[in-house]
From TrEMBL:
Keywords: Amino-acid biosynthesis, Cytoplasm, Diaminopimelate biosynthesis, Lysine biosynthesis, NAD, NADP, Oxidoreductase. Pathway: Amino-acid biosynthesis; L-lysine biosynthesis via DAP pathway; (S)-tetrahydrodipicolinate from L-aspartate: step 4/4. (S)-2,3,4,5-tetrahydrodipicolinate binds at H159, G168, T169. Residues 131-267 form the Dihydrodipicolinate reductase C-terminal domain. It catalyses: (S)-2,3,4,5-tetrahydrodipicolinate + NAD(+) + H2O = (2S,4S)-4-hydroxy-2,3,4,5-tetrahydrodipicolinate + NADH + H(+); (S)-2,3,4,5-tetrahydrodipicolinate + NADP(+) + H2O = (2S,4S)-4-hydroxy-2,3,4,5-tetrahydrodipicolinate + NADPH + H(+). InterPro entries: DapB_C, DapB_N, DapB_N_CS, DHDPR_bac, NAD(P)-bd_dom_sf. Its EC number is 1.17.1.8. CDD domains: DHDPR_N. This is 4-hydroxy-tetrahydrodipicolinate reductase. Belongs to the DapB family. NCBIfam families: dapB. Pfam families: DapB_C, DapB_N. It comes from Sulfitobacter sediminis. One of its GO terms (molecular function) is 4-hydroxy-tetrahydrodipicolinate reductase.
Length: 273
């Protein structure tokens, strides 16, 4: 279709990269125009469809992000923090939509992204699924309704290849809980308990990370008090929930002013909506 949105995918060979390419190829609202991998990757120079074990797509995998992004409307980026900052620079030069799913970004990385938001439409979230973004809102609401008698714990489980912890989603949920309580997560976050830790500090928000097998992504927010527990849970059983959210974000971003947005904006769940 002539009015389909041109998209490029970074980290094309990755778990999310391949999921995105498969979904976009089957959706005529999109035209895949770029597949980007790191320099030296053995997919460089190959047709991305064939590299994935399927039919030729006509898109050759490249490590030249500047060239690939100059011929596209949006780039969808699920890679690694340092790579994402570089792609943000390229997206700003091209003045396009940059959908960022990469997690594990430091405050410094996020600060760098802000520098590109005057020229690129940046949509970033630690989880692009509708379910998790609803859970974020629910978490905030429950946290606002309960006092410190309810200890808040965020428990997440992921596959054994995941490199960052807590997950981006767990941090979103922790932020939502802190916001609901009217506190700063930085001041109450309790991570990595080990040894004689002492009793739990009232008001802390704790994080636990499980890593194993092929778990796609599971998150619980537990509110534990004397005599009862409330547990809000999301289970992803297919990566397509993240990829569909990212594709939706790309469409939402088309024609929108440069700036920084998140999935709550895309889904119309932001507080001001
Ligand atoms: N926001 C969300 O909804 C979701 C976020 N994620 C996040 O997305 C990220 C990727 O996850 P996943 O797909 O599972 O990870 P993978 O390791 O499977 O894929 C990452 C891909 O990025 C590539 N890459 C790394 N650096 C560069 C670079 N400089 N240039 C081009 N490509 C690069 C990797 O190549 P190589 O193998 O050569 O290193 C790899 O192909 C993680 O941060 C994860 O937490 C995942 C799912 C959902
Ligand atoms: O690395 C993953 O796989 C996932 N990462 C995201 C996160 O860090 O929260 C989202 C999802 O849970 C899968």
């Amino acid at each position: 279709m002539s009015d389909s949105m041109r998209i490029a995918i970074t980290g094309a060979s990755g778990r999310m990269g391949q999921t995105l390419i498969s979904l976009a190829a089957a959706d005529d609202r999109f035209k895949l125009t770029g597949a980007i991998e790191r320099a030296g990757h053995d997919w460089i120079g190959r047709d991305v469809g064939e590299a994935m074990g399927g039919a030729a797509s006509g898109v050759i995998v490249t490590d030249d992000a500047d060239a690939a992004l100059s011929e596209t409307d949006a780039v969808i980026d699920f890679t690694a923090p340092a790579a994402t900052v570089q792609f943000a620079d390229a997206a700003a030069k091209a003045g396009i939509v940059h959908v960022i799913g990469t997690t594990g970004m430091t405050e410094g990385d996020i600060g760098l992204l802000a520098r590109f938001a005057d020229r690129a439409t940046i949509i970033r979230a630690g989880n692009m699924s509708l379910g998790v973004n609803l859970l974020v809102q629910l978490t905030k609401r429950v946290a606002a309704s309960l006092d410190d008698d309810y200890d808040i714990e965020v428990i997440e489980a992921h596959h054994n290849k995941k490199v960052d912890a807590p997950s981006g989603t767990a941090l979103m949920l922790g932020e939502a809980a802190a916001e609901g309580r009217g506190v700063s997560l930085k001041e109450v976050s309790d991570r990595g308990r080990d040894g004689i830790t002492g009793a739990r500090k009232r008001g802390d928000i704790g994080f636990t990370a499980i890593r194993g097998g092929d778990i796609i992504g599971e998150h619980d927010v537990m509110f534990a008090a004397a005599g009862e527990r409330i547990i809000l849970r999301h289970v992803a059983s297919d990566r397509s929930v993240f990829a569909r959210g990212a594709l939706k974000a790309a469409l939402w971003g088309k024609g929108r002013s440069p700036g920084e947005y998140d999935m709550l904006d895309v889904l119309g769940l932001a507080e001001s909506d």
